[in-house]
Amino acid sequence: MLRINNIKISILNDNEEYLVKKLNKLLNTKVKIKNIVKKSLDARDKNNILYVYELDIEVSNEERYLNNKNIIITPEEKYIFPETNLDKNIRPIIIGSGPAGLFASYILAENGYKPIIYEQGEEIDKRVKTVEEFLNTNKLNPLSNIQFGEGGAGTFSDGKLNTLVKDKSFRGKKVFEIFIENGAPQDIMYINKPHIGTDLLRNIIKNMRNKIIELGGEFHFNSKLTNIIIENNKVKEIEINNQELIPCPILLLAIGHSSRDTFYLLKNKNINMENKPFAVGLRIMHDQELINKSQYGKLSNLLPPANYKLTYTTKDKRGVYSFCMCPGGYVINSSSEENRLVVNGMSNHNRDSKSSNSAIVVTINEKDYGTNLLDGITYQRHLEELAYNIKQGSIPIQSYEDFINNVENKSKSNVVKEIKGSYEYANLNKILPEYISNSIKEAMPEFDKKIKGFASSNPLFLGIESRTSSPVRILRNEYGLSNIEGIYPCGEGAGYAGGITSAAIDGIKQAENIAKNKLFFN
Does the pTM of the predicted model rise above 0.70? Predict the structure, then answer.
């Protein structure tokens, strides 16, 4: 089988029959398409937007085509779980059922282990009802919400699966295969910037849980880690809900970036951590049609909702960039602590709302929030309290013009407001530190040059976006272990991932480290 890349066809001719005809003509032989490896969109020429394919094909006399620079023998790309050392009677304990914990558990279960998963939030169906009640009433459950519960924070997001992780071991491919096995669309395997959507993710997560249980794993919901008992620098037991002690020789911490109580617990247990940079800013909302026309031109009605990625460096050398862009999505109140407010973006699989949104965030570091361990959390909490208090728990929103002019409710944005949770107009300048608001104000005209109308259409800002990534990194060695034997930090909360796919990949990597188990039980 051969792999051929850089096959371009007009979006007007995007069907398999036309693709086969083009290949037959290009190679002057009969071609059979076996697999789509990659499909991306080239919209640089708005008058001739193209799909670009990479394909696995079958032809006769393969050798004659290997001098073509765009053709190679199809490589073997298969994930292989490593040789194991850990006794399969030893049951790893997983804290957290977000992507990192869920995929670590899935891989362990597939390979003969029987993981035990503890999740402080609810199982997905109950969690959805709890979230809906919060969005309708502002009544928050601090243990089960948009940040916490089965599936993690990614369950109420766009379900984006793109990642910058280099993947020589094909863990990312394994992640996609597992998603597809459990109900995800086949096209996530090859679409550039694939996404699932919050509506589909819910059933996929349930299917994964049921498969893990079928293979011998256990799930315990409403079960919060409240203590870790350590003896002779090894984990011995964990405590759940301040009452139940459980023997624990191996502990995978897949706690997510918002598990602030757990970060303080780890600090008190002298588990090595360090502060890390993150970013803070606002959500911005535009009519999706504006983004489509800017990105695609006159052919925008023939294409899926457009996305974008924007970056800028201010005169003060601060990075400003778009983050977690949600085409055809919603802004959602994603709070997880009483009297604190944070927003995020989400969308369903069809991305069929009338607006787009993304975070516009500014990089910060210890110079901004302090050098003591966990000062970043204190900083986040302070901003989230300001965001909550300015309108007593409703999402504060402001037109771009009012934000620039530092006034409240003088200019109403005409953007279609696709917002989940109550909202009110406010002056977002009163929430943000000046260096963040000024950085956003400086960047916006530059973004408008790249996307027509990005600033000049008077879009809507919503606050506050403060959970772009974990404010700490839990340190680990080459075997994936923390300074305490038996503890494996993992995923976004540990500072080793940034999104669903990278967290899942890190979960698989740490599952491998648990099974290889280099330092004990040999």
Answer: yes
